[in-house]
Design a protein that fits this description.
The chain has 380 residues and is an alpha/beta fold. The chain folds into two domains: 6-38 and 288-378, Aspartate Aminotransferase, domain 1; 51-284, Type I PLP-dependent aspartate aminotransferase-like (Major domain) (Aspartate Aminotransferase, domain 2, 3-Layer(aba) Sandwich), CATH 3.40.640.10. Helices cover 39% and strands 17% of the residues. The chain is built from 13 helices and 14 strands. The strands form three sheets. Strands 4-10-9-8-7-5-6 form a seven-stranded mixed sheet, sandwiched between helices. Strand 7 (170-174), helix 7 (186-195) and strand 8 form a beta-alpha-beta unit. It is globular. The chain binds pyridoxal-5'-phosphate. The site of pyridoxal-5'-phosphate has 14 residues, from helix 4. Pyridoxal-5'-phosphate binds at residues 102-104, 107, 128, 130, 174, 178, 203, 205-206, 232, 234, 242.
């Protein structure tokens, strides 16, 4: 077992929602109760406590109970799964969708469907752990390109073209990187993949509900085909569970061959119901994503005016890169004392020397939150 030095060890803290969904109730260092404004979770649209989601969950529980009781291929399939798959595919402009119990599982399954020992996988240096685990499990040859650097990607693609005894290469990226707040130039990337005959798998976990037209993610705007797209309901959708979106042919292939789908209990029906209610809300409130991005960009400008490096990107993830573990923890504790919760993200999650506060903007944060944050940062 890996030996983790004490300063790198993580502690589990338990939180419940306070009266307002945007605040969390937990316990401080000496066991005292604390209520903190949530600048840390991925509940970007504040949907996890939305009455429509709760109502949908209750209705499905009354009909179907809590758990699915079996894999989708045994007795675990419910009408709510099919309804969610159909509406989601149509919203995304994709031929089909297949649900998974978690995004980690969906990513693992997606990579395994597209890669094997004879594949070269070319992955952005900062892709999510679940995708990397998929590559490891597939036995593929892994190459990494510099974060969002298309010249470096093309260099790798050209090298792959020279090897003719292998399966199509596979490019892996995310449409909104969760620790960086950055997005790749996806349209150009998709063209490059097409030109070099490579498959493209995009993880839209953090973008869905926020980025792209009406919050439909960045793949929705791409003219070239995307081989596979993954998304999770655990973030802007305020629920849990995940999916892979693809052609009908690919869905059928996943259904027939994918162990992570076949041999796992189906997504719990109440979570599927909450995800469907969230999808309908997002579709009815098309401005939510744009409004959140506007607010996030205002935060970026104000932080940079206050002397911080402007956090990159346009979405609701604003990393404030600080440096050492200790410095980042110092700021986390300082914010906590003033009622604000932002988590210090440290290696190995991010590269050495780039420990950071991962600030998350939620749609429902009260006015004045930014000023509170700036006051604490300024006084540090
Ligand atoms: C980029 C990315 N992909 C996939 C996942 C996994 O999703 P889930 O939480 O549904 O397992 C996460 C969640 O942490 C993520 O940040």
């Amino acid at each position: 077992m890996q030996n983790i030095p004490p300063e790198r060890q993580r502690k589990l803290r338990t939180w419940t929602h306070a009266k307002q969904a945007y605040a969390l109730k937990g316990f401080g260092k000496s066991g005292e109760e604390v209520i903190l404004l949530d600048l840390a979770s991925n509940d970007y649209l504040g949907l996890s406590k939305h009455p429509k989601l709760i109502e949908a969950v209750n209705q499905v529980i009354a009909l179907d109970g809590v758990g699915a009781g079996a894999s989708r291929l045994v007795t675990g399939s419910r009408p709510i799964h099919q309804e969610l798959e159909r509406d989601l595919a149509s919203w995304l402009g994709q031929e089909s969708v297949l649900l998974f119990p978690s995004g980690f599982q969906a990513n693992l399954a997606g990579v395994l469907a597209l890669a094997d020992r004879s594949t070269t996988v070319i992955a952005d240096r900062l892709i999510h752990h679940s995708l990397l685990i998929g590559v490891k499990a597939s036995g593929a040859n892994l190459k990494r390109f510099a974060h969002n650097d298309l010249d470096d990607l093309e260099r790798h693609l050209k090298l792959c073209n020279n090897k003719n005894n292998q399966r199509k290469s596979l490019v892996l990226t995310e449409s909104l990187f969760s620790m960086e707040g950055t997005s790749p130039p996806l349209q150009i990337m998709a063209r490059l993949c097409e030109k070099h005959g490579a498959q493209l798998f995009v993880d839209e976990a953090h973008a869905l509900g926020i980025l792209g037209s009406d919050g439909r993610g960045l793949c929705h705007e791409i003219s070239e085909p995307i081989t596979l797209l993954s998304g999770t309901f655990g973030k802007a959708f305020g629920s849990g569970g995940a999916f892979l979106a693809s052609s009908k042919r690919m869905r059928e292939h996943l259904l027939q061959t994918c162990g992570a789908f076949r041999y796992s209990t189906a997504l719990a029906p109440p979570l599927a119901a909450a995800a469907l209610a969230a999808l309908h809300l997002i579709n009815e409130n098309k401005a939510w994503g744009i409004e959140l991005q506007k607010r996030a960009n205002n935060w970026r400008s104000r932080l940079s005016q206050a002397g911080w490096l402007r956090p990159p990107g346009h979405g609701p993830i604003l990393p404030l890169v600080i440096g050492t573990d200790q410095q980042a923890l110092y700021y986390q504790n300082k914010l906590e004392k003033e009622g604000l919760l932002s988590i210090a993200i440290r290696p190995p999650t991010v590269p050495e020397g780039t420990s950071r506060l991962r600030l998350i903007i939620r749609r429902d944060l009260p006015d004045g939150t930014l000023e509170r944050l700036l006051n604490v940062l300024e006084a540090s």
